[in-house]
Design a protein that fits this description.
- The complex is a heterodimer of chains A (348) and B (110).
- With 348 residues, chain A is of the alpha/beta class.
- Chain A has a single domain, classed as TIM Barrel (Alpha-Beta Barrel), CATH 3.20.20.
- Chain A has 16 helices and eight strands.
- An eight-stranded mixed beta sheet of chain A has the order 6-5-4-3-2-1-7-8.
- In chain A, strand 2, helix 5 and strand 3 form a beta-alpha-beta unit.
- The two termini of chain A are 31 Å apart.
- In chain B, 67% of the residues lie in helices and 0% in strands.
- Chain B is extended.
- Chain B has a domain of 69 residues: AhpD-like, CATH 1.20.1290.10.
- Chain B is an all-alpha fold.
- Chain B starts with 20 loop residues before the first helix and ends with a helix.
- Classes of the chains: A alpha/beta (348), B mainly alpha (110).
- At the A-B interface, helix 10 of A face helix 3 of B.
């Protein structure tokens, strides 16, 4: 346990706000390389299989400063996607047969063009996911109608809630976040989200509040459903258990709490070949606020751009991306530990 | 600084098989089977292990099963209740012997 963070690493000018320093640290521990493990199961080079999911990061601006945030997002981050880059996203999506557009941030809803972008996307008939931090819904009157807006466009809402109690939630996400999250979940339930047969999907995300791996997803889902229903009358669809990856603010936490070595050993020892087969980067591309293309949101935050000629949406090549070699590093162990981890929870 | 307990020794527990491989293997096979899901869930077994770790005051087991219980979705409230179960049984075990003391006292008294 420790003090809550108030500023992003970037604002603090912390050494770990530099991607080069994060990559140096990831390589500094003498552990079997991720590539060696992939090679041992004939998965090296790791190749993409399709571009089925467009995960678009609308910017680093956020109303929260979560201790584990891999984006290093916060109110002091001003990097957000412009309407021009959103148009490039729409054009690129038109070149693909992708099924899903996954909007994330920061708090994507804080981008002034968010609603315009969602309206354009909804015309394309794709599944749209918004990764909503919940508190944004109650942060300001102008966001109070987000549940109705989500409903209008049949958006799937995916929201973080590390635990069904305030102590664990607030220690990770900030003072008062749990109570506001409960308030927001009730507002989502009120318009039908998470309610049986409503057709409106509300999924929750659990990630460990500390240096340990997530519990069994299904068992945790049952417990979350019971506790949230009994205590607050809240309902939701699925719980995704996600492993924290050792980058950015979570990496800083691991180092500061002297858990870095132990956590990396744990991830390496828990390497699961089946999870490696199902890593999300094989069917996903990740777009940054400024239009660059990455294998996943984590590679984006480490500035590891895709290994193809066209690294920016202005030079988008579906053929190249569908057959690309995915860039891997030691942080990738986070997606292959135990039951695997992805933005949709466990992978096996 | 030399100490009797070294946290790194926890990772080396498998080495006990070096001096007696056959019994070591039997023990670890048995250990693995004990903690499999059965009539009790893995989480219930983890909490029992945590309580027993406190009863036998094994620092390695306390570290191991604190982490294990967290990875089984237990929170601090559940884990401290498990420790209290351990303390209650230990305390109760002392106190129930008080009956023996009382019996002996009465035997020796006029």
């Amino acid at each position: 346990m420790g003090v809550l963070v108030k500023k992003s690493l970037s604002k603090q000018k912390h050494s770990l706000s530099e991607t080069t320093e994060q990559l140096r640290l990831l390589q500094s521990i003498d552990l079997k390389s991720f590539e060696e493990n992939l090679d041992a199961i004939d998965l090296l080079p790791l190749k993409a299989q399709s571009v089925d999911v467009f995960q678009i990061n609308l910017g680093k601006m956020c109303n929260q400063v979560c201790k584990h945030c891999h984006v290093d997002a916060g109110p002091d981050r001003k990097e957000i996607m412009t309407k021009e880059v959103m148009q490039l996203c729409l054009d690129a999506i038109d070149e693909t047969n992708c099924s899903t557009v996954d909007l994330t941030g920061g708090a994507p809803e804080m981008n002034p063009e968010f609603r315009w972008f969602v309206e354009q996307l909804s015309l394309k008939g794709k599944k749209i996911i918004v990764r909503c931090n919940l508190t944004i819904i109650v942060a300001n009157k102008k966001y109070n109608d987000l549940p109705e807006f989500f409903k209008k466009h049949n958006i799937e809402v995916v929201s973080s809630l590390p635990y069904f109690s305030s102590s664990k939630t607030d220690s990770q996400r900030g003072d008062g976040v749990f109570d506001k999250s409960i308030q927001a979940l009730k507002m989502l339930n009120d318009v039908g989200y998470g309610v049986e047969n409503s057709g409106l999907t509300l999924d929750l995300v659990y990630n460990p509040s500390g240096a340990f791996l997530p519990p069994n997803q299904l068992e945790l889902q049952l417990e979350f459903k019971k506790k949230l229903s009994d205590r607050f009358g809240i309902v939701f669809n699925s719980l995704f258990a996600i492993t924290n990856l050792p980058i950015s603010r979570y990496l800083e936490y691991l180092v500061a709490s002297e858990n870095y070595q132990g956590y990396m050993e744990k991830l390496v020892n828990a390497f699961n070949p089946s999870a490696a087969l199902n890593v999300m980067c094989r069917n996903t591309i990740s777009i940054s606020w400024d239009g660059f293309i990455y294998d996943c949101d984590f590679n984006q935050m480490l500035d590891l751009k895709v290994a193809v000629k066209g690294k920016h949406l202005s030079d988008f090549s579906l053929n190249d991306l569908e057959s690309r070699t995915i860039i891997v590093n030691q942080h990738c162990y986070g997606c292959t530990a135990g039951a695997g981890s992805s933005c949709g929870g466990t992978t096996i | 600084m030399k100490t009797y307990y070294d946290p790194d020794d926890l990772k080396k527990v498998g080495k006990i098989s070096e001096f007696q491989p056959e019994l070591g293997k039997k023990f670890f096979d048995y250990y693995g089977s004990v903690f499999e899901e059965g009539a009790l869930t893995k989480r219930e077994k983890s909490l029992i292990a945590l309580a027993v770790a406190h009863a036998v005051q094994c620092p390695y087991c306390i570290d191991a099963y604190t982490e294990d219980a967290m990875e089984k979705g237990c929170d601090e409230e559940m884990m401290m209740e498990a420790v209290h179960v351990s303390a209650a049984i230990r305390g109760g075990a002392s106190l129930v012997h008080g009956v023996q003391m009382m019996n002996k006292y009465k035997d020796l008294s006029m």
